[in-house]
């Protein structure tokens, strides 16, 4: 009944094919596919209620400064906010137009900027600042700082020192 004499299932290839082209059966229908007029670019949108849930929980994650954890992974954050990693990744990509690591680094850089501006970290080296912000090395910190501020941390500190409370960067 469905098996040949070698014991293999005739329905197996059909089942695999069906599941590959209908992933919502396995994962639920979280995505709405949107295509442009030329069908060249396919965008995936999260339903509004799911996007709201992710937004609220991701804001709580950021507010609690969990992004300072050096070993943070998308799976950890997704588990903490109650969604699967691919849903979190889709939300971050749609909302912030960046990848997960860039999102984490952006929040770390904003954290660093606030601490530098408040003069809490005046006595720290760049390496110490990077470590306190959750970066694993100085190079990643410098690259991220420049990416999100268009200046080096040293120049940013110089501007804060020169312009004081009038600096808006």
Give your account of this protein's structure.
The protein has helices at residues 12-21, 24-27, 48-63, 74-81, 85-96, 100-117, 126-132, 138-149, 153-163, and strands at 32-35, 42-45. It is mainly α. The chain folds into two domains: 31-97, no CATH class; 103-166, Homeodomain-like (Arc Repressor Mutant, subunit A, Orthogonal Bundle). Strands 1-2 form a two-stranded antiparallel ribbon.
Quick synopsis:
The chain contains nine helices and two strands. With 169 residues, the protein is mainly alpha-helical. The chain has two domains: 31-97, no CATH class; 103-166, Orthogonal Bundle (Arc Repressor Mutant, subunit A), CATH 1.10.10.60.
Main β-sheet, in a few words? 2 strands, antiparallel
Biggest sheet strand order reads: 1-2
Q: H/E series, N to C?
A: HHEEHHHHHHH
Secondary structure tally: strands: 2
Helix/sheet category: mainly alpha
Distance between the termini: 71 Å
In angstroms, what is the radius of gyration? 23 Å
Mean pLDDT: 82
Q: Helicity level, as a percent range? A: 55-70%
Oligomeric nature of the chains? single chain
Measured by DSSP, the beta-strand proportion falls in under 5%
The figure for the number of domains is 2
Low-confidence stretches: 25-35
- Shape call: elongated
């Amino acid at each position: 009944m469905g098996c040949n004499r070698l014991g293999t299932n005739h329905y197996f290839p059909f089942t695999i094919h069906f599941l590959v082209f209908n992933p919502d059966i396995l994962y639920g229908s979280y995505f709405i596919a949107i295509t442009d007029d030329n069908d060249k670019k396919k965008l995936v949108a999260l339903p509004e209620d799911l996007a709201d849930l992710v937004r609220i929980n991701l804001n709580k994650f950021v507010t609690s400064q969990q992004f300072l954890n050096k070993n943070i992974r998308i799976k950890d954050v997704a588990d903490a906010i109650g969604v699967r990693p691919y849903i979190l990744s889709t939300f971050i990509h749609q909302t912030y137009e960046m990848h997960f690591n860039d999102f984490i680094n952006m929040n770390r850089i904003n954290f660093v900027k606030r601490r530098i501006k408040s003069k809490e970290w005046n006595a720290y080296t760049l390496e110490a600042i990077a470590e306190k912000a959750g970066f694993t090395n100085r190079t990643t910190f410098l690259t991220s700082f420049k990416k999100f501020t268009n200046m080096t941390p040293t120049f940013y500190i110089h501007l804060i020192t020169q312009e004081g409370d009038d600096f808006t960067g």
